[in-house]
Design brief:
Layout: H1 2-19, E1 20-29, E2 40-43, E3 48-51, E4 57-64, E5 66-73, E6 80-86, E7 93-96, H2 106-109, E8 120-125, H3 126-130, H4 138-141, E9 148-152, E10 161-165, E11 173-177, E12 180-181, E13 202-209, E14 223-229, E15 237-245, E16 249-257, E17 265-276, E18 285-297, E19 301-315, E20 321-322, E21 341-357, E22 361-384, E23 393-395, E24 398-400, E25 402-425, E26 431-453, E27 463-486, E28 489-507, E29 513-533, E30 536-547, H5 551-555, E31 566-579, E32 582-603, E33 609-629, E34 634-656, E35 663-673, E36 680-688, E37 694-703, E38 706-707, E39 717-718, E40 721-732, E41 739-747, E42 758-765, E43 772-779, E44 786-794
Parallel strand pairs: 1-7, 11-14, 34-42
Antiparallel strand pairs: 1-4, 2-3, 2-5, 5-6, 8-13, 9-10, 11-12, 13-14, 15-16, 15-44, 16-17, 17-18, 18-19, 19-21, 20-43, 21-22, 22-25, 23-24, 25-26, 26-27, 27-28, 28-29, 29-30, 30-31, 31-32, 32-33, 33-34, 34-35, 34-36, 36-37, 37-40, 38-39, 40-41, 41-44, 42-43
């Protein structure tokens, strides 16, 4: 009996092994015969698949004997479906035909740099963004790109986040989505909290450092981010992403797509929800968003409608952490009122057309509309009635001048317009010319209302205590051309005209009457040269950008003393190279500012702090980044930015409360450091793949010392910090899914206590013998060791 059982077991094992088959083959371009690397090969009826290697070869193992329904797809090629019988004999070669449908790359090409454009840039793919996309905002996902410093008010990367590139803050970084401007017309910033989980709908991103190429929207004074949203997916799909981690952080995302219908139409949609308690006390976030895209794809044209929206409710942690709390209470939050929240919703509508005209011309045009509305609510203790233009309250014989108030500060705005470009490429490819531009209008209402007062007096709920409006028209036109004069040698020219009309009227928050109109006309030329040979591109360029003051510069200054526009002269020179498994970039930059606007401590006639022009300031540095694939298992990468960021002469104004009559003292500094601009920023990345489908990444970040203001004072600075993260990814292709991926991200594994952002102010008070200087520093601390764990299922 024992021999019989052993024999049966052996037979069953043999039958089982005979029933499992492997299938290998090659995927080629039908017209050129070249191998297609990374093509997807999927056994639809058995739930297994793989991708082609550098020779276009794929292997799928552990397949069941019988009929196999094979689907092969590759971006830019028509999908092939083939039925086979297993076991399969003979060599399997599958040829894919380039699709006759127009691709969507031209939608953003007019505002992007190409390999021959003489400027400094980096491109990031959907896959690279996806590796870290477990719920944190876009700036945090870009933390390891060159010259970038990121921060988060809540300390965990969810909620209000920001970034600086080369020391330039978000108001100096121009952002476009599909070529459409995203920066707020008045503050010039981008509030990523209004676009939660936007990364899940991004196909690719180009970061241009420095002035870069002409584009739509605000002038680039540090960098530009150019996003392209999801492009056409020829196959129907569904995807579910779920993440959970520290501080009760959760992200839930559902994506679906119809695939190509009738070889012409496609619809894609995403729905997301992100919540977190935050690292800082009460710094919670409740974020939701959706993205819907419907497109028509013809042989010579693409027409797309994108609709996306974000809604956020975040508990305020803007106040920061006082220095006295830094050592023993890092999660301290000044705000305690239970509804001290920021509430905002923003809807975006984009209608985009891209088409070919003959063999040499392409045209792109888009209409857009953004509707934003919301408020932040504040509890104010013992505020004077006069701050709200209200009379004092008399009760009996008592005159009450102050009371507790809950107020809401509202913003209700519309932003709409159109952008367009026309591209000509000569038959021999030596001329590449783009004529483009845009016309946009911003119409915004600002108002504040009192929703509660402990002693209301002569007030009604929703009374407005200030109300003002602003209309801003922004027009630009640019012409840029690249001419290959000799083999590999190209000249580049880029001319942009930009005009702004800005009118505002009403009553400001401080009670002043606003009523003025400002006009600006800017000319922004750019020239450069590049030389390409043997996988290397040398380039050099000179570019000019001009920028108008932002809203606060108008509303906080006296109308007769509005600051001058800023001007930036930018020189870039560098090398981009790839040789086998080694890729590297090196560049030098000089950003020379004229009349840069900075806070000086100076106040206006009603006591509000204002920004002032400084005549001469600059940023100069060297940026290096490289990646090397040592073997199939090991890849090394990193970047290093070394810079000097200086103001030639700066006058600081300090409040003086040491005498009954308020005054300000002034101090002049020369060759002083620009605030929040570290001289060293570096990142390092090591990837180890011990087995197929398992990736282990070690990510390190170093940011040098930063000064909180422009005085170069050590007592008003942020310490240098060095952080390390680990990311582990494992993907499989189980029977019932196209793919299943697990991602574990452990941030700050050595529990570094660090603060990448903050602010400071100083004042004089009476001392024992003479007045005493008091400096108050506030910090935005980041969380210690924390994690996010994600599961992604694709059907």
């Amino acid at each position: 009996m024992k021999k019989v059982l052993l024999g049966l077991a052996f037979c069953l094992a043999s039958i089982s092994s005979w029933a499992q088959q492997s299938l290998s083959g090659k995927v080629l371009d039908s017209s050129t015969g070249e191998a297609l690397i990374g093509a997807s090969v999927w056994a639809e009826n058995q739930g297994k698949g793989g991708v082609t290697d550098e020779k276009g070869i794929f292997t799928i193992s552990k397949l069941q004997t019988g009929t196999l329904e094979l689907r092969v797809s590759y971006i830019g090629y028509s999908t092939v479906k083939q039925t086979l019988e297993l076991p399969h004999s003979g060599e399997l070669t599958i040829k894919l035909h380039p699709t006759d449908l127009m691709t969507e790359e031209f939608i953003v090409s007019a505002t992007r740099a190409s390999q021959s454009t003489p400027t400094t840039f980096q491109e990031i793919s959907k896959e690279e963004l996806g590796k870290r996309n477990l719920g944190q905002d876009m700036p945090i996902l870009l933390n390891f790109t060159p010259s970038v410093v990121t921060f988060s008010d809540a300390g965990a990367g969810i909620g209000y986040t920001g970034m600086r590139i080369r020391g330039s803050d978000q108001s100096r970084i121009n952002v476009t989505v599909n070529g459409i401007p995203m920066n707020d017309s008045e503050s010039h910033g981008v509030f990523w909290v209004n676009m939660p989980d936007f990364a899940s709908s991004v196909d690719n991103l180009q970061i241009q450092r420095g002035v870069g190429t002409s584009t739509n929207g605000a002038a680039t004074f540090g960098a530009s981010l150019n996003f392209q949203t999801d492009t056409r997916n020829d196959d129907a799909y569904a995807q579910i992403d779920n993440s959970a981690g520290s501080f009760n952080s959760f992200k839930h995302t559902i994506k679906v797509g119809s695939g190509l219908l009738n070889n012409r139409f496609a619809v894609d949609a995403r729905l997301s929800k992100i919540t977190s308690d935050g690292y800082v006390d009460r710094a919670s976030s409740d974020l939701s968003s959706y993205f819907v895209s419907a497109g028509y794809f013809g042989e010579n044209q693409v027409l797309k409608l994108n609709v996306f929206s974000g809604k956020e409710k975040t508990y305020q942690s803007w106040y920061g952490l006082p220095e006295s709390k830094l050592e023993d209470d890092r999660t301290y939050n000044y705000y305690t009122y239970d509804n001290e929240t920021d509430n905002y919703k923003q809807d975006h509508y984009q209608l985009i057309y891209a088409g070919k005209v003959g063999t040499n011309w392409k045209v792109n045009a888009a209409l857009h509309y953004t509707y934003g509305r919301g408020y932040y609510e504040q509890y104010r203790e013992d505020d004077p009635y006069s701050d709200y233009r209200l009379p004092d309250v008399t009760i009996g014989d008592s005159i009450i001048t102050n009371t507790d108030i809950i107020r809401r500060l509202w913003l209700d705005n519309d932003f709409f317009g159109g952008v367009a470009s026309l591209n000509y490429i000569s038959n021999n490819g030596r001329w590449d010319v783009v004529l483009g531009g845009g016309v946009n209008r911003y119409d915004g209402d600002h108002f504040g209302e009192i929703i509660w007062a402990r002693i209301a007096g002569d007030t009604e709920i929703r009374d407005h205590y200030y109300d003002n409006t602003a209309v801003k028209d922004d027009r630009n036109i640019y012409l840029k051309a690249t001419r290959e004069v000799l083999e590999g040698l190209s000249l580049y020219g880029d001319l942009q005209l930009r005009s702004i009309d800005y009118t505002f009227s009403g009553i400001n928050e401080d009670g002043r009457i606003l009523d003025d109109e400002q006009k600006y006309n800017f000319f922004n030329p750019k020239v450069g040269i590049s030389y390409e040979k043997s996988g290397r591109v040398w380039y050099a360029s000179y570019a000019v950008a001009n920028r108008e003051p932002k809203r606060a510069d108008f509303t906080d200054n006296e109308i007769t003393e509005i600051p001058k526009p800023e001007r930036l002269n930018n020189i870039e020179a560098g090398l981009r190279a790839q040789s086998g498994s080694f890729t590297y970039n090196a560049n030098f930059y000089l950003m020379d500012y004229k009349d840069q606007l900075i806070p000086t401590g100076q106040i206006n006639n009603v006591g509000a702090y204002i920004r002032e022009n400084v005549a001469d300031s600059y940023r100069a540095g060297i940026e290096l980044d490289a990646a090397y694939q040592l073997s199939k298992a090991w890849t090394f990468g990193g970047n290093l930015a070394l810079s000097q960021n200086k103001i030639k002469e700066f006058t600081e104004y300090v409040d003086d409360y040491s005498t009954p009559e308020f005054t300000q003292d002034s101090f002049t500094y020369t060759d002083t450091d620009i605030a929040l601009s570290p001289n060293v920023v570096a990142s390092a990345m090591i990837e180890f793949m011990p087995v197929k489908n398992l990736s282990i990444n070690w990510l390190s970040k170093y940011v040098g010392k930063q000064y909180l203001d422009n005085s170069s004072s050590d007592s008003r600075s942020l310490d240098a910090f060095f952080t390390n993260d680990i990311r582990i990814s494992y993907s499989v292709q189980p029977r019932f899914f196209k793919s299943l991926e697990l991602n574990l991200l452990v941030n700050n594994i050595f529990n570094e206590m660090y603060e990448p952002n903050g602010y400071t102010f100083s004042y004089f008070v009476p001392g024992e013998s003479e007045k005493e200087l008091v400096t108050e520093n506030y910090y935005y601390p980041m969380a210690g060791t924390n994690f996010m764990l994600g599961l992604s299922l694709r059907f």
